[in-house]
Write a structure and sequence with these properties.
Length: 345
């Protein structure tokens, strides 16, 4: 039997799972499924709440006919700390692991004993360079957060093969490790947050989590029109950012919130261009459920003045033709789950 791998994205509104079959160079879709997340879900603290998430994951895996127990899971970007450390001298791997804790102490608001540190080397000069240096992307995950995820997964009867972050998952499925891909910003609009990621030379250089996501958009419509949330959700999905619909009424309500996301994206794009003039951002990928909103691609393209595309995490993956249309409808929402499943051992 071919080797399979399972990506599990425990979103705040929807939990998704993807199982891929890897056989030499080919990656084939074996199974996928999604289910509404219980509330408050992973934001809960008590055992009852966490057990509710676990039993939902169990139902999801049953529905997807997934029997494997080893899953790759993402921690929410909004709860981990990431930073590019670019003031280090040339360091060997061994030197780096001791120096990194000093650098970490400066920006992590928790005692270092309370976090797990991971890092990736973004750049390391030749030791004999005039200006020898090492640039590192550092990720600090609170141990309480990791313990909570491990607990839920254990209740659900699965084992976390790896715990990554949402942006690491989305980066793998949407950009991949290709060092020649154009520098890209991924704007991942979920339900509770929007996560920005800058990917250059196949590596992550910046992540930022904003607390404006799809739920805030729905709430704004509900408040403005005095609608139930379900009706507001419908309006968002049908009219979204289409200025010529309903006299632009929905557009006007959504615009200030979308602009929070768009302006912050613009700001990080400009800051990146100033810092790294030779690897300017050439491409914008809209991901997450919010990327499916009518009119949003055009709105971002005109505001950012860049090429904007809707995320398609399935593009390199072999799938049955019968599935292809169905997958494309919900594609941007699967970026994280697909990327997690694509993780190499
Ligand atoms: N066609 C659509 N138009 C506009 N918004 C949409 C559309 N389809 C889904 N959404 C929105 O996408 C959001 C859900 O996205 P997603 O499934 O990526 O979130 P999540 O992973 O559960 O949340 P988070 O990542 O913040 O924890 C919801 O707010 C939903 O209203
Ligand atoms: Mg999500």
């Amino acid at each position: 039997m071919a080797k399979t791998s399972i990506g599990l994205d425990i979103g705040s509104s929807i939990i998704r799972v993807v199982e891929l079959e890897k056989d030499k160079e080919r990656v084939k879709l074996r199974s996928l499924a999604s289910i509404a997340s219980p509330q408050p879900g992973m934001n809960g603290e008590g055992d009852v709440e966490l057990e509710a998430v676990a039993s939902t994951i169990k139902s999801l895996l049953t529905a997807a006919k997934i029997e494997g127990k080893d899953v790759v899971v993402a921690l929410p970007e909004s709860k981990v700390f990431t930073r590019v450390i670019d003031d280090l001298p040339y360091l060997t791997d061994k030197e780096l692991s001791s120096s990194i804790t000093y650098a970490a102490e400066e920006f992590i608001p928790l005692p270092l004993t309370d976090v797990n540190l991971n890092w990736q080397i973004l750049y390391r000069s030749n030791p004999k360079d005039k200006n020898p240096r090492t640039v590192v992307f550092l990720i600090a995950s609170p141990k309480t957060l990791i313990n909570k995820y491990v607990k839920v997964l254990t209740y659900a009867g699965v084992r976390p093969k790896a715990l990554e972050t949402e942006t690491m998952g989305a980066t793998r499925s949407l950009v991949g490790p290709n060092p020649f891909a154009p520098t890209t910003i991924i704007i991942q609009i979920g339900s509770s947050t929007t996560d920005l990621t800058i990917v250059s030379k196949g590596l992550i250089w910046l992540t930022r989590s904003l607390s404006t996501g799809g739920l805030a958009l729905t709430r704004a419509i509900a408040q403005h029109f005095n609608f139930e949330m379900s009706q507001a959700e419908e309006y968002k999905k049908v009219y979204g950012m289409l200025e010529d619909q309903l006299d632009g009424k929905v557009y006007e309500v959504l615009k200030p919130l979308i602009d929070i996301i768009a302006q912050e994206s613009k700001r990080v794009i400009q800051a990146f261009a100033e810092k790294y003039p030779t690897s300017q951002i050439k491409r914008v990928v809209l991901s997450g459920g919010g990327a499916k909103m009518p009119g949003i691609v055009i709105y971002f393209a005109s505001l950012l003045g860049l090429e904007v595309q809707e995320a398609d995490p399935w593009y390199t993956i072999i799938k049955d033709q019968t599935l292809a249309t169905k997958l494309s409808q919900d594609a941007p929402a699967y970026s994280v789950a697909v990327g997690l499943a694509l993780r190499e051992e």
